[in-house]
C-alpha cells in the first residue's frame, strides 16, 4: 500500500470521557498481515488501539498474561467465539455481542463477571475504521457490564481465510454465594420465567441479511444480563434453581436442555411467550418459529413456585426485564420432554432444532 | 397481524370444533393434500381436538417428499461438477440421495447455493458467465410459475448458462390416482390452498363428481383447517360431493390466469414418477421443446439414471395415507430428522417429520387435568 502520509481512522477525533484517540496508528487504512506478525506494527496496533480503548492496570502491563488477585468462593469461567454476519447489525455489532455473550454465560450461574480476554482473528484488508468501531463498542459494553478486558491476542490471516473479523472472548466471574444454579437443578413445581420478548436478535440479523425492512425495525436485544441477574438473586435467593440465556436454538433448545439435564418434564403455554409484533411478522415472512430463534439479551430462569412472583416482579422492575413473563412450569411427568400448549388448547412436543436454522447468527 | 391473528383465535377454534362435534355422526376419513396443512394440523394439535370419528390422513402434497430418488442423485451429480453453481431452495439440501445429500456435496467443495427465488438463480447466471447455473425446480403448481418465469427470462436474455433440473408434479392427477386405487380409504379432501391460488378450483369439479368425494379448498391456519374439516364433514353427512372454497380470501375459482399461461408456455404435461408412489400418468411437467436448451437433464446427460429406494422405508404408504408414520418400525428409532431414511422424515412438510416434531410419542399419561389447572 503506498501511503506516505499517516491517515486518521474513525470519525474525526473528539474529546470524550475516554480520552482522545491517539490514532493515526500505522499509516494504513486497513489491517495488514504485519499487524498480526509480532513486530512493530502489531505493537503499534496493540498500543494505540487496544490499550487505548480497554485501558486497565492488568492489560497495560503488556505481559503475556494478566495476573489477577482473586478471593472468591468459586470461579466461573466460560468462553465463546463470535462469527456473526453481518458484523454490524441493527441494535449492535460483533464487538458488543462478544462482550455481552461471555458476560452472560459467566453470569448465568449467579457469578459476578469481572475479567474478559479478547482474541481477534482479522482478515487482511479489514478497514481499521471498522476495527476501531468494534473495539470502542467492546469498551462500552465492558464498561456497562462492569468487566475489564485484561488480556488479548490478535492474528491476521490472508484475504479469504476468514470473513472480515472473528472474535473470541473468555470470561472469569466470582461466585460469592453458595447457590447451586444449574440446568441439572430444576425441580418439579418450579416456575419458568423469561425476561422479555424472544427472537429479537436472530430476526434482526436475518432481516438485515435478507434486506427486509419493516415499519418498526427489528433490533437485536444484545445486552449484558448480570445486572438483571443480581436483582433475580436478591428476590429469589436459593429458590433460583436454573438460569440460561436462550441463544442459538432459542427457547426450545434451552428448555430441552433443562428437561434433559434435570430429568424433569416441562410444560409451557405458547400464548404466554412474549414476542414483539414486528418480530412475529418477520418470523412469519421467513417461515421461522420464534421459539427456535436466537436471543442475545434474554434469560430464562427456573424458580421455586413460592418465590416466583417475587422474582417476576423484581425482573419487571429492571430495564432489561420489563416484559418478563411466567411461561410455564416444571413437572415430574414426562422427564426429558418439553410440551407446549398451542393457542387452540391442544398440547404438542417442543423439540430441539434439527440441523442449522441460521448459520453465523452470533 | 391482520389475516393471521383472527385465523388463530382460540374462541373461534373452539366454536368450530363444537360444530364439527355436532355435525359428525359417522366415521369419516378426510385427507389433507398439502404437507403445509399436515404440519399445521400437528403443530397446533388439531387432530387431538377432533371427534374420534374423524380420521385425518396425510396426503402426498410435500414436493420435497415426492421428488424421486433418481432426481436427487441427478442433482448431486450435477452439483459435484466444477463448472456448476447449483442453486436450490434450502429444504432440498438435506434430502438424502442414494449415498449423500447436497450439504455433503457442498462440504466436499461443490458450489451449492441456497436461493429464496428462482430469479436469484437467474441473477447468479448473469453474474457468473463462466459457470453453469442449475436451479433445482422442485414443486407443485405453486412454484411452477416462478420457475417458468426464470426459464422464460433466461431464454429471452440468451443466458445459455442457466438451466433447471425439473421435478415438477401436479396435484389433481395424484388425487385421482388415490381415489381410483382399490385400497383407497379417503372419502373427502382438503385441497391445497396455495396450489389453488395459482390453478383455481375448476379442475377439481370432475374429480368430486366422478368419485363422489367432497373437495374443500382449504388454507393453512388452524381456523382455516377447522373450517375446511367442518365443510367436508357437513358434505359427507349430507351425501353431497361438490367443490367448495374455504380459502376464498386468497383463492378464486379461475385462479391466477397469467401464471397459468406462463406455465403453459414454458412447460408441457408429462408422466412423472412420484417418490414412494410410482409413476402417475400426466402428473408432472417437463420443459417445452423450445426451452430444452435450459433443461439440465439434457445438458448434463442425466436422463438414464435409475436407482432403488431403501426397502425399510414406508414413505410410500405414508404419502398416500394408508399408514401413519408411527406404524413404521424405523420411526423415531433408526429414522429421525437427523438420520432420515426417507423423504417424509426430511422435509419439514413431510408427515413423518411432523409427527416426530410435534407428536412423539403420544404423551404418556397425557397432560393431567391437575397439570392443566396448575397451568391456568
Describe the structure.
Chain A is α+β, with helices and mostly antiparallel strands. Chain A has two domains: 33-175, PurM-like, N-terminal domain (60s Ribosomal Protein L30, Chain: A, 2-Layer Sandwich), CATH 3.30.1330; 191-349, PurM-like C-terminal domain (Phosphoribosyl-aminoimidazole Synthetase, Chain A, domain 2, Alpha-Beta Complex), CATH 3.90.650. Chain A has helices at 40-54, 94-107, 128-145, 200-209, 226-236, 250-262, 277-286, 305-316, and strands spanning 74-82, 88-89, 92-93, 112-123, 148-157, 165-175, 191-194, 240-244, 265-269, 300-303, 325-331, 338-341, 347-349. A seven-stranded mixed sheet of chain A has the order 8-10-7-11-9-12-13. In chain A, α1 runs parallel beside α3 (128-145). The longest helix of chain A is centred in the middle third of the chain and has 18 residues, at 128-145. The relative contact order of chain A is 0.15. Mean pLDDT of chain A is 90; it is low at 1-20. Chain B is α/β, with parallel strands linked by helices and 376 residues long. Chain B has three domains: 5-64 and 171-245, Rossmann fold (3-Layer(aba) Sandwich), CATH 3.40.50.11750; 65-167 and 255-299, 3-Layer(aba) Sandwich (Rossmann fold), CATH 3.40.50.11740; 315-355, no CATH class. Chain B is built from 18 helices and eleven strands. In chain B, the strands form two sheets. A six-stranded mixed sheet of chain B has the order 4-3-5-6-11-10, with helices on both faces. In chain B, strands 2-1-7-8-9 form a five-stranded parallel sheet. In chain B, β8, α12 and β9 form a beta-alpha-beta unit. In chain B, α7 runs parallel beside α8 and α8 crosses α13 (257-266).
Amino acid at each position: 500500500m503506498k501511503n506516505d502520509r499517516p491517515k486518521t481512522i474513525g470519525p474525526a477525533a473528539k474529546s470524550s470521557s475516554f480520552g482522545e484517540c491517539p490514532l493515526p496508528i500505522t499509516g494504513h487504512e486497513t489491517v495488514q498481515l504485519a499487524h498480526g506478525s509480532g513486530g512493530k506494527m502489531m505493537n503499534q496496533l496493540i498500543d494505540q488501539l487496544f490499550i487505548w480503548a480497554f485501558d486497565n492496570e492488568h492489560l497495560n502491563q503488556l505481559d503475556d498474561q494478566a495476573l489477577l488477585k482473586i478471593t472468591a468462593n468459586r470461579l466461573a469461567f466460560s468462553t465463546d467465539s463470535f462469527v456473526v454476519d453481518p458484523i454490524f447489525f441493527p441494535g449492535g455489532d460483533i464487538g458488543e455481542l462478544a462482550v455481552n455473550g461471555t458476560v452472560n454465560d459467566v453470569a448465568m450461574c449467579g457469578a459476578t463477571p469481572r475479567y474478559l480476554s479478547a482474541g481477534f482473528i482479522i482478515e487482511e484488508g479489514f478497514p481499521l475504521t471498522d476495527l476501531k468501531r468494534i473495539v470502542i463498542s467492546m469498551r462500552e459494553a465492558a464498561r456497562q457490564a462492569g468487566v475489564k478486558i485484561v488480556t488479548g491476542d490478535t492474528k491476521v490471516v490472508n484475504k479469504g481465510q476468514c470473513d472480515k473479523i472473528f472474535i473470541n472472548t473468555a470470561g472469569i466471574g466470582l461466585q460469592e454465594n453458595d447457590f447451586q444454579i444449574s440446568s441439572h437443578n430444576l425441580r418439579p413445581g418450579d416456575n419458568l420465567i423469561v425476561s422479555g420478548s424472544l427472537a429479537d436478535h436472530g430476526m434482526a440479523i436475518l432481516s438485515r441479511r435478507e434486506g427486509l425492512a419493516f415499519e418498526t425495525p427489528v433490533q437485536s436485544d444484545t445486552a449484558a444480563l448480570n445486572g438483571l441477574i443480581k436483582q433475580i438473586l436478591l428476590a429469589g435467593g436459593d429458590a433460583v434453581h436454573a438460569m440460561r440465556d436462550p441463544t442459538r436454538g432459542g427457547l426450545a433448545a434451552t428448555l430441552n436442555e433443562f428437561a434433559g439435564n434435570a430429568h424433569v418434564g416441562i410444560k409451557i403455554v405458547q400464548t404466554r411467550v412474549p414476542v414483539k409484533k414486528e418480530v412475529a411478522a418477520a418470523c412469519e415472512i421467513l417461515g421461522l418459529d420464534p421459539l427456535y430463534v436466537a436471543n442475545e439479551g434474554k434469560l430464562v430462569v427456573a424458580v421455586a413456585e413460592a418465590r416466583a412472583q417475587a422474582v417476576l416482579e423484581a425482573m419487571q422492575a429492571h430495564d432489561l426485564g420489563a416484559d418478563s413473563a411466567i411461561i410455564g412450569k416444571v413437572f415430574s411427568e414426562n422427564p426429558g420432554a418439553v410440551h407446549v400448549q398451542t393457542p387452540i388448547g391442544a398440547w404438542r412436543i417442543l423439540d430441539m432444532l434439527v440441523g442449522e436454522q441460521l448459520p453465523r447468527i452470533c | 397481524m391482520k389475516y393471521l391473528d383472527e385465523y388463530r383465535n382460540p374462541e373461534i377454534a373452539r366454536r368450530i370444533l363444537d360444530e364439527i362435534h355436532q355435525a359428525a355422526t359417522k366415521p369419516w376419513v378426510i385427507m389433507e393434500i398439502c404437507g403445509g396443512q399436515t404440519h399445521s394440523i400437528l403443530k397446533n394439535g388439531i387432530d387431538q381436538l377432533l371427534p374420534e370419528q374423524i380420521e385425518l390422513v396425510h396426503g402426498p402434497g410435500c414436493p420435497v417428499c415426492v421428488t424421486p430418488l433418481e432426481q436427487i442423485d441427478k442433482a448431486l451429480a450435477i452439483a459435484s461438477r466444477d463448472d456448476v453453481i447449483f442453486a436450490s431452495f434450502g429444504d432440498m439440501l438435506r434430502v438424502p440421495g442414494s449415498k449423500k445429500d447436497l450439504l455433503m456435496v457442498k462440504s466436499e467443495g461443490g458450489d451449492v447455493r441456497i436461493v429464496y427465488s428462482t430469479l436469484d438463480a437467474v441473477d447468479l447466471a448473469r453474474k457468473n458467465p463462466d459457470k453453469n447455473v442449475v436451479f433445482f425446480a422442485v414443486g407443485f403448481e405453486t412454484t411452477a410459475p416462478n420457475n417458468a418465469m426464470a426459464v422464460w427470462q433466461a431464454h429471452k436474455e440468451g443466458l445459455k448458462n442457466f438451466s433447471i433440473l425439473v421435478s415438477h408434479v401436479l396435484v389433481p392427477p395424484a388425487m385421482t390416482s388415490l381415489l381410483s386405487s382399490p385400497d383407497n380409504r379417503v372419502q373427502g379432501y382438503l385441497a391445497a390452498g396455495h396450489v389453488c391460488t395459482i390453478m383455481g378450483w375448476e379442475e377439481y369439479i370432475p374429480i368430486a363428481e366422478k368419485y363422489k368425494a367432497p373437495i374443500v379448498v382449504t388454507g393453512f391456519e388452524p381456523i382455516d383447517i377447522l373450517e375446511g374439516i367442518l365443510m367436508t364433514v357437513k358434505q359427507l353427512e349430507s351425501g353431497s360431493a361438490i367443490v367448495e372454497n374455504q380459502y376464498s380470501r386468497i383463492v378464486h375459482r379461475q385462479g391466477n390466469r397469467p401464471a397459468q399461461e406462463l406455465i403453459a408456455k414454458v412447460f408441457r404435461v408429462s408422466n412423472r414418477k412420484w417418490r414412494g408412489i410410482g409413476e402417475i400418468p400426466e402428473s408432472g411437467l417437463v420443459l417445452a421443446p423450445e426451452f430444452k436448451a435450459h433443461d439440465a437433464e439434457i445438458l448434463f446427460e442425466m436422463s438414464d439414471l435409475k436407482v432403488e429406494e431403501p426397502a425399510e422405508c414406508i414413505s410410500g404408504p405414508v404419502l398416500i395415507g394408508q399408514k401413519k408414520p408411527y406404524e413404521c418400525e424405523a420411526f423415531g428409532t433408526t429414522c429421525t430428522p437427523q438420520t432420515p431414511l426417507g423423504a417424509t422424515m426430511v422435509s419439514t412438510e413431510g408427515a413423518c417429520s411432523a409427527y416426530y416434531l410435534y407428536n412423539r410419542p403420544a404423551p404418556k399419561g397425557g397432560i393431567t387435568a391437575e397439570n392443566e389447572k396448575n397451568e391456568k
